[in-house]
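User: Please predict structures.

Assistant: First:
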Amino acid sequence: MMRKFLDWKSASNRDLKLFYSDINQDGAKEIIIILTTGSGTGVSEREVHVFNVDRSNINKFIYESYVDDPIVIAMKNVKTKLTSSEAEITIGKKRTLVNIEKYGIEPGGGSAGIIVITYKFKDNLYQAKKIDFKTYIQ
């Protein structure tokens, strides 16, 4: 069986990552495909596709479980404030301040960390469970 995914986009075939692991702990391994859809100025955008294998139904042998868009999750949950000397990242009630001036990070052109989203599998969908900011600066 051949499937075409016409709505998938990737910045480069070199940036494709493929995994085979039981990420939802149901006893069966899933196929995970991660496409890099864009990058630049310290930011990478990725699109994740998760396929489940259902051996009990030949018509639905491989089906995709959708993953909530990380950009939408970040837009809804992460607030940022930037000055020439400081970056402020707020997620929920947790606020992180990074002195970008001290580390020579240019406002709007550098990166002080990464947003990490942990997903949970619920209602055949991978939804955000936890959102954190991890600074690159120690």
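Second:
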Amino acid sequence: MPAARESLLDAAYTALARRPWSAVRMVDVAASAGVSRQTLYNEFGSKEGLARALVRREADGYLAGVERALSGPSDPRERLTATVEWMMSAAHDNALVRAMLTGCWSERLPAPALTAVPSASAVPAQRRADGPLPSPGDFVGLVRDRAVAVLGGAGPPPPPDAAELARSCELAVRLALSCVAAPPAEGGVGDLLRTALPRRLTV
């Protein structure tokens, strides 16, 4: 029941914005979503299962946002800059995303183990959530590799400057993540990145 699952995840996210995860009650999440508590347990198995699914959804949403940002301006340098600015904005607005990117989980947040957990769930989406969750290092690799693929074009042969492009994408992602942990005082991450990148990214 995808609609019920999304409603439950929305309700859990809203509850988390109002109180620490330790104070979020399953019965309240179910009531807010307009379903029975049994439906909630059927879908996620436990509060830990709900936490994993919520973190997985926010991670997937973040990576989908990166994809959209990478389809922005035609100039590769500006496209990468726009993506980094979006990454900062998204992390600022979402405490779960911020925690995933930095590895700093406050006591207010759920902090599920990043390793896979045994799953007896019959729900495919929950089996995905029960798999490994991305670490900060995973995010670096995922975003860098996607940026290289989009900006460099898919498939062989690689452009002559593929190594430079990969270095620039890695630099951009790591700069964005460092600014999530310690926001720049002036000018924003875009100005920092424009200074650090080569004047032209030829792809």
